[in-house]
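Possible regression after last week's pipeline update?

I re-ran a chain I had predicted before the update to compare outputs. Posting the input and the new output here so someone can diff against the archived version. Not blocking, just want to make sure nothing changed silently.
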Amino acid sequence: MPMNYQIAIAGAGIAGLSAALFLERQGHDVVLYDQFDKPKPIGSGLVLQPTGYSVLATLGLDGQIQQYGNKILNLNGTISRNQRKVLDASYNTYSPKRAGFAIQRAALFDVLYQAVLNTSVRLEPSTKIMGTSQKSYTKVSLVDDKGQETAPFDFIIDALGSQSPLSPIKGKALYYGALWANLDWVEDAPFATDQLQQRYRKATHMVGILPTGSTPQNSKFSTAFFWSLPKANYDDWLSTPIDNWKDEVLALWPETVVFLGQLNGHDDLVMARYHHRTLRHPVSNRVVHLGDSYHAASPQLGQGANMALLDAFALNQALTQREGLDAALQEYARLRRVHILIYQLISKLFTPVYQSDSDVLPFVRDEILAPVMSIKPMQMILSSIVSGTVGNPFKALGLTETFVLEKILNKKGP
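New output (post-update):
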């Protein structure tokens, strides 16, 4: 029978919270550390793919998140100069029941956080973790920014994100980031509520609209608005009048005028910076890496939160199915290795097609990839890529796929 362990989790984001829920339910003693006085979400909207949604269903949280999110059936991208569609990915091309589920990160975080509060997980806020201290072969402690050590644990889960100080390597900073804002949906807006829509000018400019639903704090139906921007240009953007930037957005996509009125200044948008890195070994010296601390990538494929949820599920499966901690942690690494390598490679190849200064790559995207991807067999492959199901993680992890309900519970539509 698997042992019960004393486990420390560093980072109360999606990866840390979901791991805490799984492990506490298996009877482990879990302590969750976070640097904030009260853990809080970072980021705007995201899409729960069939993979991540199914993990939440195993936790019994799918009904709760459906109160807030919004069903997504298609991902569409068009060129600004002629409105020609160059990205058309439908979830149900591969399976008629599949869909994405767009949700504000704050809503997903709140559901997970409230669930953790109703468990025996001990929360330790205001603790900035900077390292670990190996007490013995079988015990390890966390070290905070004041040099103080925690009590020893059987193992530590690193869920501190792409720039985790516990990671043996740092992520490669990507040249492009994005400006994000959560905006109220506008009645009669000329955008479909069941689609993630993007507009491109080459690969240097991109604006996107993702209808994301509501949050526990705000019942209004909302959308995530994002604008691609090189990190090096952020200070120049801050020093330029906001109306100048709005004119640039409108030149790319005039219909966004219905949302831009809600943006009154630079502070209404948040700059997100991205990194890319994949740890070769996600387990070392009784430290286990989950989520972005294991495999950081651009959000272009929309897999970040979903991969973190799969990590948490896989770790729980490994601890349940394998005798001995060392064997269980190595099983976790094995369970996730193939799926992560596939998506990290896809992300590395596709990100510069949508965010780069290249003239060649957007030509390839528009004139070669777009026609090829319109062929039915390729449409099925694209659908599987977007859904996060390449490599069949359901089978690999023993995860049952749960489908988004046809009718969203208590949906507060526009």
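Follow-up from reviewer: compared with the archived run. Residues 409-414 have pLDDT under 50 and may be disordered. Marking as no regression found.
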